[in-house]
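User: Show me a protein chain along with its predicted structure.
Assistant: Here is one chain, sequence first, then structure tokens.
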Amino acid sequence: MTYRQALLGAAALAIWSCVAGASLAQATDPGENIENEMPEVSADAEIQRDTRDPSRGPVTNLPLPRYVSLKGGEGNARRGPSLSHRVDWVFRHAGMPLRVVAEFGHWRRVEDQDGAGGWVHYALLSGVRTAIVQQDMLELLSKPEENANVVARAEAGAIVRLHECTKDWCRVSGGGEKGWVPKTTIWGVDPDETRD
């Protein structure tokens, strides 16, 4: 080590000692106002401070619950939000409406009309809205009125595409036909939901 390096090192040590000494003196000064110190915050307190809307998903900020549909012909519903969790349920109908009730990373907890379900990877889901017909030989009407002309009939369990909805009626399509049905005869839309 050269004389210059030793001199610079000693100067740096002296400066550090002065700064550390001043900090120590400030911390132990009896006149110091302790209330100005930041209190240690626990993880529980941080969680409680979360100001996100509980009716919105923490990942997407979309409403919870909300309806989506199965993108492909098959989707595994797992016990937890990862591939390492076991498969509890397999959805096997393309376009099947599902209700998202929770989110975690790339996973969505979904339920079918019977409440069965689990965690499904978001890539298996679509934002296209569908519904399941719950009444056998449901009449699709030309207008949202009870006395309107019958356009077609749908069997119970049929999956139909969901279009606009009013307070009491929804327009659906399937099998090349489109018509209005009472909202209470299908699953895949909330009772108070309206769609344009």
